[in-house]
Each structure stands twice: as structure tokens, then as C-alpha cells.
């Protein structure tokens, strides 16, 4: 028996031969499955005498089930360089009036004339339908 499935694949962003891709199913056997995204933005910690701003969207995730989101962005230029920020959010945290958000934290890549990294943390914006 064949079951019709539709969806899309998100590139992992990794360059090695052992990388993988995330498959997001948008319909299963003709039944639609909605996905959503969140905004992600903030400032890194101060290190080497400066900080960096960042802003982007998370990768899509299914709506209505326990989930996390992957995220990846590059900081704005400060002191002539940027850093990459990437990771996976924590699980969904429900809001009293509906919707949800996620917390995230991590450390940037090491970059700059004087090699260094920055910490970052925050919470995503409220969920936004992507499909």
C-alpha cells in the first residue's frame, strides 16, 4: 500500500560526508500538517571589548505536538568580523493566552583578529505559521 506524503528538507549546513538533513512532513495520506517558525534575536555577551547583534528565524517544526527548533544565523559585523550562532531550542513553553515560545543558549564560533567567542541566550518570539 502506498501512502502519499509531502514535505520539505532543511539542509543541515554541515560540509562533511556524515551530515544529515531534517525532513518536515506537511501532509500524510492527504491530511495537512501545519508547521510554524519563531523569530530569534538578541545580543551576545561582551568579549574582547565588544558584542554582536543577531536576528533570524528558526527552522520550521510541526504545530500541535511536542517539538524543538533548529536555528542558525551569522551575527552582524562588529570589530571587523562576524560569528556563527547555531543550535537547537529547548521544548515549547506554553503561554497563558495561547501560543508558545522556546528558550535557547550557546556559544558562538571562534573568530576575529584576536580569536574569541561570545555567549548568547534568549527566548524566541511567539510561534508564526509557516505553511
TrEMBL record:
InterPro entries: YmaF. Pfam families: YmaF (PF12788). Residues 112-131 are annotated as: Disordered. This is YmaF family protein. It comes from Paenibacillus montanisoli. The lineage of its organism: Bacteria, Bacillati, Bacillota, Bacilli, Bacillales.
Amino acid at each position: 500500500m502506498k501512502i502519499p506524503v509531502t514535505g520539505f528538507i532543511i539542509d543541515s549546513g554541515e560540509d562533511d560526508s556524515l551530515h544529515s538533513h531534517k525532513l518536515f512532513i506537511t501532509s500524510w495520506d492527504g491530511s495537512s500538517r501545519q508547521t510554524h517558525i519563531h523569530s530569534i534575536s538578541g545580543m551576545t555577551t561582551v568579549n574582547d571589548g565588544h558584542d554582536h547583534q543577531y536576528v533570524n528565524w528558526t527552522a520550521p517544526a510541526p504545530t500541535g505536538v511536542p517539538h524543538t527548533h533548529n536555528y542558525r544565523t551569522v551575527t552582524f559585523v562588529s570589530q571587523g568580523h562576524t560569528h556563527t550562532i547555531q543550535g537547537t531550542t529547548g521544548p515549547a513553553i506554553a503561554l497563558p493566552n495561547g501560543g508558545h515560545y522556546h528558550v535557547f543558549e550557546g556559544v558562538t564560533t571562534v573568530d576575529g583578529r584576536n580569536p574569541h567567542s561570545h555567549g548568547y541566550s534568549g527566548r524566541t518570539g511567539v510561534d508564526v505559521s509557516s505553511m
